[in-house]
Amino acid sequence: MTKLEIKLKNKIMRRVYAVWFLKKIFSLALLRALITLVLFMEFAREVSISSVINNLPKATDFSANYHYISFAFTHTEASVQIYLLGIMAMVSWIVLQKLVKLVPNIGIRGSTL
């Protein structure tokens, strides 16, 4: 092997080892949880969650709750909407992964969530 080939091989193997090491340290579940946590922290930084909860109608009044939540969502800033959609997507992904682990036949064959 020439010097150039050895350098190229070493560079490639360094990347392979780095990816292997990161996969051992950070599991996909941890990555999902971290992303969800970051999204929630950014959401909480933008929105006063206690004020939103205090202004909610009675829990049994589903129609009023639906109108309150939909009005609040449509009249908020785009960044807050993105955070909320991201949180909902990540929570859905986590729940789906848990369901697949509980009921193995629920997943799509060959699917790795």
Can you describe this structure?
With 113 residues, this protein is an all-alpha fold. It has one domain (26-106). 76% of the residues lie in helices and 0% in strands. It has five helices and no strands. The chain has helices at residues 3-25, 28-46, 49-54, 62-74, 78-102. α2 runs antiparallel to α5 (78-102). The longest helix is centred in the last third of the chain and has 25 residues, at 78-102. The protein is elongated. The mean pLDDT is 88.
In short:
The chain has helices spanning 3-25, 28-46, 49-54, 62-74, 78-102. With 113 residues, the chain is mainly alpha-helical.
Sum up the structure in keywords.
113 residues; mainly alpha; 5 helices; 76% helix; elongated
Helix and strand topology:
Blueprint: H1 3-25, H2 28-46, H3 49-54, H4 62-74, H5 78-102
Helix pairs in contact: 2-5
- Rg from C-alpha positions? 22 Å
The gross shape turns out to be: elongated
Number of strands: 0
| Share in β-strands | under 5%
Task: Average the pLDDT over all residues and give the rounded result.
Answer: 88
What is the straight-line distance between the termini?
A: 41 Å
Which bin fits the share of residues in helices? over 70%
